[in-house]
Write a structure and sequence with these properties.
Elements lengths: L5 H15 L245 H13 L13 H13 L4 E8 L6 H21 L7 E5 L12 H7 L1 E8 L1
Parallel strand pairs: 1-2
Antiparallel strand pairs: 1-3
């Protein structure tokens, strides 16, 4: 039997003893005086992320090499423990928080995260450069003022130009930005006397409030219908030149009645016919047109020449529509003429109004021209 050298024998014994306790890391002293350490110390990777603990900034939490072994939930290259927005991808410059519009303001502090804007506007743009951020600017593409929420106001009256009827003149809100220099309640554009306070009809002074401006009023201190003068008997002869101011009469007779007129003259008949042709009504109504008022005044003058006659007003229609409606409309139109006559002072007991509907045509109703002729008002003076 071959005897092994003593040194080799001692080595084998030590090796067997180490194998029996492989999990221990305490060094074993060999007979030769050398220490032997555990075989896995320098390669340990506790979190199993592929990075040895000695190189891993977070050895107990798995993470990628880009963040030195630390977790990076949003994968933005900024480790979670250094990331102020760990669930939102961001940039290192913003501590891991996003800045989508790259204006230097993180999205969480940016009022307009999708639009580039300076910090003084909380990240919002100011397209027109008027110092008002777009979200607060009612006119973001037009330079304006803070007082008008970013909209232009050229005349500085507080009404933005696009709503200002007079954008070049300082005006009032109640007149859509138009001025009222004399403060009479009528804007200058509708005021015939813009520098003199007046009424709300013409804007001109009318001391007696008769509807005739003082400048055109022959009797500015007395209200009246004839060039501003009174006409008590309504005969179209002003009281100051009427020899019979309380009795109706023609101007040819000095405003006094002339009972000698008994029979209608041809000229009077022609006047009645022409007045009837000129009487007009607003479409589809019994309201007299503005121009017809003068015709009624002329009618009153003709009728007053014949104090022993009754004025009969006859309303007519075409045959379109039912008879009942046509009769009603014709009566309403005849009444409208009668009412205006009475308003002008014509005696009530000398006028009658009758509606005939379409019962008395004077033309063919099958044509437009014929129907137009049939829609009429006629006047007759009948001896009482």
């Amino acid at each position: 039997m071959r005897i092994l050298p003593m040194a080799l024998l001692l080595f084998l014994v030590a090796l067997c003893s180490h194998s029996a306790s492989a999990n221990e890391t305490t060094p074993t002293t060999l007979a030769a005086g050398m220490d032997y350490g555990g075989p896995t110390d320098l390669r340990k990777d506790t979190d199993g992320d592929g990075i040895r603990d000695r190189d891993d900034d977070c050895p107990t939490e798995a993470g990628p090499a880009s963040t030195n072994g630390c977790p990076d939930t949003d994968e933005d290259g900024v480790a979670d423990h250094e990331d102020e927005c760990p669930n939102l991808p961001g940039t290192e410059a913003h501590a891991g928080c996003p800045d989508r519009d790259r204006d230097g303001l993180v999205d969480s502090l940016d009022r307009c995260p999708n639009h580039y804007g300076p910090a003084r506007f909380s990240g919002c743009p100011d397209t027109d450069g008027d110092g008002i951020a777009n979200p607060d600017d009612k006119c973001p593409r037009e330079f304006g003022l803070a007082a008008t929420k970013g909209c232009p106001d050229g005349d500085g009256d507080g009404i933005i130009d696009r709503r200002d009827q007079c954008p070049g003149e300082y005006g009032l809100k109640r007149f859509q930005g138009c001025p009222d220099r004399d403060n009479d309640g009528l804007p200058d554009e509708a005021d015939r006397c813009p520098d003199l306070p007046g009424n709300l009809i013409t804007g001109c002074p009318d001391a007696d409030e008769d509807g005739t401006n003082d400048a055109d009023d022959e009797c500015p201190d007395e209200p009246g219908p004839l060039r501003g003068c009174p006409d008590t008997d309504g005969d179209k002869v002003a009281d100051w030149e009427d020899n019979c101011p309380r009795k109706s009469g023609p101007a040819l007779n000095g405003g006094c009645p002339d009972v000698q007129f008994r029979r209608l003259s041809p000229s009077a008949l022609e006047q009645l016919r022409l007045i009837g042709e000129n009487i007009k009504f607003e479409t589809g109504s019994s309201e007299l047109s503005a121009a017809s008022s003068q015709e009624i005044l002329d009618l009153a003058e003709v009728a007053r020449r014949y104090p022993n006659h009754t004025l009969v007003i006859k309303g007519h229609t075409d045959d379109v529509g039912d008879d009942e409606k046509n009769t009603r409309i014709s009566q309403e139109r005849a009444d409208a003429c009668r009412d205006l006559l009475l308003a002008y002072g014509f005696p009530e007991d000398r006028v009658r109004a009758v509606g005939y509907g379409g019962s008395t045509p004077v033309a063919d109703n099958s044509t437009a021209a014929g129907r137009a002729r049939n829609r009429r008002v006629t006047f007759e003076l009948l001896e009482r």
